[in-house]
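User: Here's a chain of 152 residues. Predict its fold as tokens.
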Amino acid sequence: MIASLDAALAKRALLRSLRRVAVLLRDFDAGIQLYGRIKSIDSTSDKMLREGVGAHEVLDIIGIRAVTDHVHDCYRMIRRIHSGFPVLAREYDDYIAAPKPNGYRSLHTTVLSSCGLPIEIQARTHTMHAHAERGAASHVRYKKLQASVRGA
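Assistant: Prediction complete.
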């Protein structure tokens, strides 16, 4: 199913899910920023090779990130999202309570879109987002390190 993911279907699933998340979170006092993305084919292939999994096991091909001001709002957002989407069992990670060794903090959950595609949703604060994007937990730094390890 995911291996032959149609770009138009992925875009439709992402846009519908973003709208649904926005509706679910519309009454939050905190200013929430929502971001959405579809993982590139290269990034998906790299993940499959790195983790030794098939395309159907990559559950973050479509992703939504919700960024807010306060940690307690991250948990509230995830609870609200869980109330509005079917949730995939065992696909919840609390990197706020248990940060990764590089300091990365965020909540991750995977839900099913209205067309049945998995959507990874991340909730984090602006500070956590800045650390993930530009700090020690930066994905760019991770990819550069990965490339240097491959080249060694």
